[in-house]
Design a protein that fits this description.
The chain is α/β, with parallel strands linked by helices. The protein has one domain: 3-Layer(aba) Sandwich (Rossmann fold), CATH 3.40.50. Helices cover 29% and strands 24% of the residues. It is built from 5 helices and 13 strands. The strands form 3 sheets. Strands 6-3-2-1-7-10-12-13 form an 8-stranded mixed beta sheet. A 3-stranded mixed beta sheet has the order 9-8-11, covered by helices on one side. A hairpin with a 4-residue loop joins strand 8 and strand 9. Helix 2 packs parallel to helix 3. The two termini are 25 Å apart.
């Protein structure tokens, strides 16, 4: 199956989730994620502003603020598929951009370097247990990850994690995947297979 077919099939499955199930699963993922972040000395967490059917990050961001963590959100540049992260301290710093996405307004937000981000939450639509992922097709995170050296993880519903996804030699897998029912330690799974 090609990445495009796999991506579209999973999107269909995710959009069929009813509101109660979606909210319940998102809350379970949020709780697990926050417990893990609370156990680390990470001060700056990079993540996107979600839109359905992605795992909800709005509640996560509010909780990170209440924990005294810095939240960095990406602004994408379609021309060269690059991203710059900006620290946001409230949702009023967001603006609606192309494809109805919410991104930080750079005029009222502080830019954050990749080196300042302790944990990066990498979005995707399908993941393997080894941490390889099929993204949304833009390639923004693939480019960003080439120069990012911190911890990476993804938040996913159980159905999004499969045994294998097609990947290229230059694809950079995430270290960990958190689902409602399991945390996959992808880095360790990859090391076992080496």
């Amino acid at each position: 199956m090609t990445k495009k077919i796999t991506r579209n099939a999973m999107r269909d499955q995710l959009t069929s989730l009813d509101e109660g199930t979606y909210n319940n699963y998102s809350k379970q993922i949020e709780d697990q994620f926050l417990r893990q972040v609370a156990a680390t000395d990470a001060s700056t967490i990079g993540l996107t502003i979600s839109s359905f059917p992605e795992v909800d990050t709005w509640g996560i961001i509010k909780q990170l603020w209440s924990m005294g963590k810095n939240v960095a959100v990406p602004k994408c540049t379609p021309f060269d598929k690059s991203m710059i992260f900006y620290q946001i301290q409230n949702f009023d710093q967001l603006e609606r951009v192309y494809m109805h996405l919410l991104e930080p307004n750079p005029l009222i937000s502080k830019a954050i370097t990749p080196q300042e981000i302790d944990i990066l939450v990498v979005p995707g639509i399908v993941y393997s247990e080894k941490g390889y992922r099929i993204g949304y097709g833009g390639g923004y995170y693939d480019r960003f990850l080439m120069n990012y050296k911190g911890d990476t993880l993804s938040l996913a519903f159980d159905i999004q994690v499969v045994k294998y996804v097609e990947y290229d030699v230059f694809d950079i897998p995430v270290d960990k995947i958190i689902t409602p029912n399991e945390t996959f330690l992808c880095k360790q799974i990859r090391q076992k297979d080496e």
